[in-house]
Amino acid sequence: MKKLIILGVLTLCTGNIFSQTFNKEKLDDYFQALEKNDKFMGSVAISENGKIIYTKSIGYSDVETKAKPNETTKYRIGSISKSFTSALILKAMEENKLSLDTKIDKYFPSIKNANKISISNLLNHRSGIHNFTNSEDYLKWNTQKKSEKELLEIIEKGGSDFAPDSKADYSNSNYVLLSFILEKVYKKPYSEILTEKIIKPVGLKNTYYGGKINLKNNEANSYHFENEWIKEPETDMSIPIGAGAIVSTPSDLLQFADALFGGKIISEKSLILMETLKDNYGYGIFQMPFGTKKAFGHTGGIDGFTSNYGYFPAEKVSFAFTSNGSNYTNNNIAIAVLSAVFNQPYEIPTFKNIDLKTEDLDQYLGNYSSKDIPLKVTVTKSDKTLMAQATGQSAFPLEATDKNIFKFDQAGIVLEFKPSEKKMILNQGAKIYNFDKE
User: Fold this and answer.
1) Spatial contact of 107 and 180, defined as CB atoms under 8 Å apart
2) Can you say how many angstroms the Cα of residue 42 is from the centroid of all Cα atoms in its chain?
3) ∠ Cα 195 197 201 (to 5°)
4) What is the rounded CA–CA span in Å between residue 120 and residue 276?
5) pLDDT at position 2, please?
6) Beta-lactamase-related domain location, by residue (predicted)?
7) Which residue from 177, 234, 415, 430 puts its CA 20 to 30 A from 149's CA?
8) Cα gap 125→128, rounded to integer Å
9) Could you list the residue range(s) of the whole structural domain that residue 118 is in?
């Protein structure tokens, strides 16, 4: 359900893939470095021509019992569910149960601009409907079961952020509404439609509509990291539905991707519609560039779970990873995985941290503003940990890596302080922003 950064572009040339050149041992070492330094818990899989060439699982599926994950450990995949929902909508179109041009006032007349919003607008995030997971009170009720009536009232209350089809902006509300439309046209719960139209035909053995996490069924709990792994509350799966309620494994996601882009779920004509980008959004997928190569896929995030999958049509290569605890930028992990696949150089990270006393942090505390971006950053401390909080966002912990240099790996942020000059430099995604202490 969270909006995550899509795989970044690498400015390098990539050659042809030959699975025999794949260095499994180096990628193992990469993930072992992440595990050893509490940077990532989860599973990864890679396939070529429909055949899995690599799997790896690290960390704990349940920290309390020290249960280790394996290839069939199941994770909430969050917004990757949207690829499934989009395929189901296109399947319903092929079965003449709906039209993509139909305005949603047919189903939800009380939603603002419903007579101007098409099913197509929902699919590629051009509806203007406010994203309810961005609302300030969302985390106060997301663990409570909600009915269709209650969710519709929440979405109606959120209103519209822009005129329909005037631009694109990511909204989970769109895919909750698409889930309800599927249930109306098939007269079945979303979970049954998913099973009947995708899971059974494709043969996905570890994919299903989620419920309360069941460790006995080899499902993982999720966590965030604050000096140790801390368990996250569970979003009730009645809320995300087709926007984020599916549970799966990396191997199943590869099988789904191979079937979807191989024309085994929807027709070639429907697949072209799905892949057609407008303001960078397709139907339930994005384009993910890697050098000169391009994949289609999606990222996902819900509670402490994060995930990513992509399919390279020209190379017939798929990758997927699912995480129940990430203290590192998933974009870097995806780049490392694909560098290994396409035989490109990548480094095994070293995590050097320095130990500071609480009084050492005092020189960095304060409010910082920038002429480069309309953002303020407040720097505080919690015992021996420096904390940063940007306008309208949650506070996050910083790790000291060198004199005056701190990082937050999960978002790829590096902060360099210059106390004598009362300045701070923020580096993220190769972009540098200068801040002055107020």
Assistant:
1) yes
2) 14
3) 85
4) 12
5) 45
6) 42-328
7) 234
8) 7
9) 19-341
Report which residue type is found at 58.
I
Predicted local confidence at residue 20, as pLDDT: 58
The residue length of the chain stands at 438
398 contacts 406 by C-beta, under 8 angstroms: yes
At 256-280, the pLDDT tens digits run 999 999 999 999 999 999 999 999 9
What contacts 78, CB < 8 A, 6 or more positions away? 1, 2, 240, 244, 299, 300, 301, 302, 305, 306, 307
- Over 44-80, what HEC string results? EEEEECCEEEEEEEECCCECCCCECCCCCCEEECHHH
How many structural domains is the chain composed of?
2
User: Which token pair is 275?
Assistant: 């892949």
Instruction: For residue 111, give both structure tokens.
Output: 């939603």
Query: Is the pLDDT score of 8 beyond 60?
Result: no
Determine the average pLDDT of the residues in 351-366: 90
Q: With respect to residue 432, please indicate whether it lies within any of the assigned structural domains.
A: yes
Helix (H, G, I), strand (E, B) or coil at 189: coil
Q: What is the largest CA-CA distance in the chain?
A: 69
Phi/psi at 358 (nearest 5 deg)? -60, -35
Q: Which of 281, 307, 341 is the last residue of a domain?
A: 341
Give dist(CA 190, CA 133) in Å, integer.
20
Question: Is 2 within a domain?
Answer: no
Is residue 22 a contact partner of residue 344, using CB atoms and an 8 Å limit?
no
The answer to whether the beta carbons of residues 202 and 196 sit under 8 Å apart is no
Residue type, 127: S
Tokens at 295, concatenated: 């994949």
Instruction: For 410, list phi and psi in degrees, rounded to 5.
Output: -60, -30
Residue 80 lies in a domain: yes
**Shared domain check, 266 and 160:** yes
Q: Tell me which residue of 90, 102, 243 sits closest to 174, measured CA to CA.
A: 243
Angle at 155 between CA 304 and CA 195, to 5 degrees: 60
Q: Which two tokens stand for residue 277?
A: 């980008």
Give the angle 375-376-382 at the CA atoms, nearest 5°: 135
One domain, residues 132 and 249: yes
- For residue 267, is it within any domain? yes
| C-alpha to C-alpha distance for 335 and 341, rounded to whole angstroms | 10
Q: Which amino acid is at 313?
A: P
Q: Residues 377, 430: one domain?
A: yes
Domain of 302, CATH number, reads 3.40.710.10
Model pTM above 0.90: no
End-to-end CA distance of the chain: 35
Question: Which DSSP category does 210 fall into?
Answer: -
Residue 401's pLDDT is 86
Residue with tokens 């994060």: 306
Give mean pLDDT, residues 202-213.
98
Residue ranges of alpha helices (H) inside 2-132 are 24-36, 81-94, 119-123
